[in-house]
Design goal:
InterPro entries: 4Fe4S_Fe-S-bd, 4Fe4S_Fe_S_CS, Cyt_c_oxidase_cbb3_FixG, Electron_Trans/Redox, FixG_C, Ig-like_fold. By secondary structure, the protein is α+β, with helices and mostly antiparallel strands. The chain folds into two domains: 12-346, no CATH class; 349-459, Immunoglobulins (Immunoglobulin-like). 43% of the residues lie in helices and 20% in strands. It has helices spanning 27-45, 78-99, 102-106, 109-125, 128-136, 141-166, 172-180, 186-206, 208-214, 217-220, 236-239, 256-259, 280-292, 304-309, 313-318, 323-344, 423-428, and strands at 50-51, 54-55, 57-60, 65-68, 71-73, 231-234, 299-302, 349-355, 362-363, 368-379, 385-392, 398-399, 404-407, 412-422, 433-443, 450-459. A hairpin with a 2-residue loop joins strand 4 and strand 5. The protein is elongated and about 110 Å long.
């Protein structure tokens, strides 16, 4: 009888190995920190800016008004948000076609917050070697204290990030008062904690896993690459054969490029989808080349064509303006100019005309025909205005209600309007049934602020 086969467990996915990137210095490291400071100053500081006595940037969902400095947008202006998203998409296509995943490596929120959390980790737990040693240690009071301090600092940054996020939708000063007095509504509490938890989890725990498995950009970026796209490259011809002794290659196999990589990859194995283009390996390799007396650039920004054809930097720059890049640039410029023109010529006044469905047309005293409408008027500017209402399109057409209405800044009001026409003149001219008319709304203090809306006047047979 055959002996039983021992049970085996086959894992479909490799167990994640913790990555402890080494801290590096250099041109690209300083550029990454510059991008970090600029993006975070903009993110954390913008909600505190004041414009015309109110928050400069506020997406007030309760009142359905979106404030962008001097611009006030309403739900009817959703087209501008769609245009902004299109501009961002084309901008990303253009940058990717030229410089690969430079957005991921320098300005992506996942990269930025991971860098912040890594900086906190280094300040508390020490260098890469110290963090690896701490991971291997058994339970101790020292290890417990360092881990608690690190996670408390992470939590503070994450909660402040969630607070700031909600501050774009709820006035940030009111939000701060509500948190201090525990008087926030349930949705504010939910989103502060949810966004804070997402930041804590993504930047503190998941890190490179977000880029590898969760971000779709890493999957479709290759569709925008070609042989002239700038990527992080290893000069195989110059570096191989590698070794710590003088074997003919410039690479001394110090593995510094691997130790500083936040994704834990070896760029010497070629371009990989995990590479976010942060250029940390470039800084690390350049510092090693300086120490061993070799020229810099063993790992560098270059293109696939430049590496195979040995192109000079000037030739690489010449090939940057290729048809794909020009097409992306032209589309981006056209869309940006069109949106800018639309915003510059936008009239901060809107009017919708709604017929009174309960009265399709009635005869009043004196034989006149009267129709009733409701004008939904929106003053989308931040100045109060008085407007004159006028109607035209039929002989003798006149308003039977007050033709002047005053609206405060960013106010919306429904104004009932009764319009009359002499009945005999209409019937004699065969104007029974549906007749097109036009309502005009004009600001009394600025004739350029005017809108027209078509409507229908019903004359009963």
């Amino acid at each position: 009888m055959n002996a039983p086969v021992p049970e085996q467990v086959i894992r479909m996915y490799e167990k994640r190995q913790p990555i402890h990137p080494r801290e590096t210095d250099g041109r690209y490291a300083r550029l990454r920190w510059l991008c970090l400071w600029l993006t975070q100053l903009a993110y954390y500081g913008t909600p505190w800016l004041v414009w015309n006595g109110r928050q400069a940037v506020l997406f007030d969902l309760g009142t359905r008004k979106f404030y962008l400095f001097g611009l006030v947008l309403w739900p009817q202006d959703f087209i501008y948000l769609a245009a902004l998203l299109i501009i961002c998409a084309w901008g990303l296509f253009l940058v990717t076609a030229v410089a690969g995943r430079v957005w991921c490596g320098f300005a992506c929120p996942q990269t930025v917050y991971t860098s912040i959390f890594l900086w906190i980790e280094r300040r508390i737990e020490g260098s890469r070697a110290a963090r690896i040693a701490l991971d291997r240690q058994g339970p101790s009071a020292r290890k417990f204290g360092k881990r608690v301090a690190k996670h408390l600092a992470w939590g503070a940054v994450a909660l402040w990030t969630g607070f700031t996020f909600v501050g774009y939708f709820t006035p940030v000063r009111e939000l701060g008062t509500g948190i201090a007095t525990l008087a926030l509504g349930p949705w504010e509490w939910f989103w502060v904690l949810f966004y804070g938890f997402a930041t804590y989890g993504n930047a503190g725990w998941l890190r490179e896993q977000v880029c590898k498995y969760m971000c779709p950009y890493a999957r479709f970026q290759s569709a925008m690459f070609d042989r002239d796209t700038l990527i992080i490259t290893y000069d195989t011809g110059r570096g191989e054969p590698r070794g710590k002794k003088a074997t003919g290659g410039a690479c001394i196999d110090c593995t510094m490029c691997v130790q500083v990589c936040p994704a834990g990859i070896d760029i010497r194995n070629g371009l990989q989808y995990e590479c976010i283009g942060c250029a940390a390996c470039v800084d690390a390799c350049n510092s090693v080349m300086d120490k061993v007396g070799q020229p810099r650039g063993l790992i560098r920004y270059s293109t696939d064509r430049a590496m195979t054809a040995n192109l000079a930097p000037a030739e690489i720059r010449q090939r940057a303006l290729r048809p794909r890049v020009l097409a992306y640039g032209a589309a981006l410029l056209a869309i940006t100019l069109a949106v800018g023109f639309a915003l510059a010529t936008r009239t901060p006044l809107k009017m919708d005309v709604i017929r009174d469905r309960g009265s399709m047309g009635r005869e009043v005293d004196g034989g006149a025909i009267e129709n009733v409408y409701r004008l939904q008027i929106m003053n989308t500017s931040e100045q109060p205005h008085r407007y004159r209402i006028a109607a035209a399109g039929l002989p003798g057409l006149a308003l039977a209600t007050d033709d002047v209405v005053a609206l405060a800044a960013t106010e919306t009001r429904a104004v009932p309007v009764r319009v009359r026409v002499p009945g005999e003149a209409l019937r004699g001219a065969g104007k029974t049934g549906s007749n097109p008319i036009t309502f005009t709304l004009t600001a009394l203090d600025d004739a350029r602020l005017a809108v027209e809306e078509p409507a229908v006047f019903i004359v009963p047979r």
